[in-house]
Specification:
mainly beta, 137 residues, four-stranded antiparallel β-sheet, 8% helix, 11 strands
Length: 137
């Protein structure tokens, strides 16, 4: 499990071995992101933002990460590098490969809901792979 907290303008409000709950690092925020730690190397993050917000940041972890994201409602816009943008609106799915920074991210509507599947290949271990083979073979 890897924390994104202050690097992207979030703070942790609860954490245990199964989940980490984030909110925006500002007063009176009702927005939440909940990261569920499913397996070693795999997390699912539910996003429920209830306000417009602009932030930037860089994730300091060195390991690769793959992210599959689905936008249920709202609009999200991010400038990932100079003149390289990512947009999400309802129904969009996008995949990112080791995207660890945002020059500027925006929630351009009063609500943003969706989820991300985060895969950290270097953290996948033999026990996890064996469990999958046993469960889904």
């Amino acid at each position: 499990m890897y924390s994104i907290d202050k690097d992207f303008g979030f703070k942790i409000i609860y954490e245990d071995s199964f989940q980490t709950v984030y909110t925006l690092d500002k007063k009176n925020s009702n927005s939440r992101m909940i990261a569920y730690h499913l397996y070693s190397g795999i997390e699912i993050m539910l996003n429920d933002f209830s306000e417009r917000y602009i932030w930037s940041g860089q994730w300091k972890e060195e390991i690769p990460i793959y992210q599959i994201s689905y936008c249920h409602s709202g609009v999200y816009q991010a400038e990932l590098s100079k003149n390289r943008y990512n947009y999400a609106s309802p129904g969009n799915i996008f995949v990112l490969n080791s995207c660890k920074q945002s020059l500027e991210s925006k929630m351009t509507t009063d609500i943003l809901q969706g989820f991300n599947i985060l895969i950290f290949p270097e953290l996948l271990n033999e026990v996890t792979i064996e469990d999958w083979l046993n469960q889904f073979d």
